[in-house]
Amino acid sequence: MGSETQTKLPLIDFSKIYLQKSTPADWDSAKTQVHHALTEYGFFRASMAGMSPEFRTSLFGSLDQLFDLPLETKLKSISDKPFHGYIGHSPTMPLYESMAVPDAPVAGEVEAFTDFFWPHGNPLFRESIRNISDKLYWLDRAVRKMVMESLGLEKYSDDHMDSTKHLLRVAKYKGPDTDESIMGLTSHIDKTTLSILYQNDVAGLELQTKNGEWIRVEQSPDSFTVFVGEVFHAWSNGQLHAPYHRVMMTGNEARYSLGLFSVPKPGYITKVPDELVTKEQPLLFNPFDYDEFLKHLFTGKIGANEDALDTYCGAKESELTTYSKS
Ligand SMILES: O=C(O)CCC(=O)C(=O)O
Ligand SMILES: [Fe+2]
């Protein structure tokens, strides 16, 4: 386990852009910072407008209510689809519980999730989750657009937006009731395009820099943590860095987090743009279908290691890829 440092994560202000009070220069400045952060670190914090104390109280109160439901109710939302449904009471991660709202930004999905747990309705829960999901979704699109522009690949932007879907996952990490640092979620790289997290004021998330230092994310009510997953790393032919991260818990307070995870839609073939393949940077990943990749991952055909996508469709060792290059 590496040592932790107090180094500050890059912090990029999106408030003016979100409120539509920005100039083109504000967008360009944020874009330059995003490009630098995601190529050098693979992550940054984004500050956003509209995260009032009242909103946070209703949001985290709602999550408290959700995880407080009887276990048998939560278990009803178990799913055999990877990353969907209830996860909890795992012997290796006893502090961790999570549930997912598939396609959360799509109209009706947050409502369906709410009705599943509260058949007579729960407007406060529904509105809090809808509100945060809309903000996360907005930020996901803004960041991916900035990435396309900063790589000179605007022409792929619309296609990237249209071929991406989103999963919202809400998580609770119980306080371990000790001053020692206890693993809440083991170190991993997300199997996503982008991941964006928001949390209550109990610290725990740590991200690893390229040189192996663990950085603890500082808490602030108005900031989100944005980082690259394996899919965006592959799409960018390795230009965007996908960082390891983990959750370390201490003390007795529960940590609540919400993450919006963007991934390619079923049937879409993710392919490195020709412009990013050069003599200096040869092709690292063959085209792949994300759902086929997940199937291989979850049926044990490839190990759930951190370079799973590289093992699956890395340009040097791609026997498993079923999609043939044109
Ligand atoms: O809860 C967090 O802050 C981290 C969650 C995470 O890394 C994940 O769900 O992949
Ligand atoms: Fe993660």
Automatic annotation (TrEMBL):
Give the coiled coil ranges: none
Superkingdom classification of source: Eukaryota
What are the record keywords, sorted? Iron, Metal-binding, Oxidoreductase
Q: What does this protein do?
A: 2-oxoglutarate-dependent dioxygenase essential for auxin catabolism and maintenance of auxin homeostasis in reproductive organs. Catalyzes the irreversible oxidation of indole-3-acetic acid (IAA) to the biologically inactive 2-oxoindole-3-acetic acid (OxIAA).
Which residue intervals define the domain Fe2OG dioxygenase in the entry? 164-264
Name-wise, this protein is 2-oxoglutarate-dependent dioxygenase DAO
Gene Ontology molecular function: any one = oxidoreductase activity, acting on paired donors, with incorporation or reduction of molecular oxygen
UniProt organism field: Centaurea solstitialis (yellow star-thistle)
Q: Which InterPro entries match?
A: DIOX_N, IPNS-like_FE2OG_OXY, IPNS-like_sf, Iron_ascorbate_oxido_reductase, Oxoglu/Fe-dep_dioxygenase_dom
Into which family does the record put it? Answer: Belongs to the iron/ascorbate-dependent oxidoreductase family.
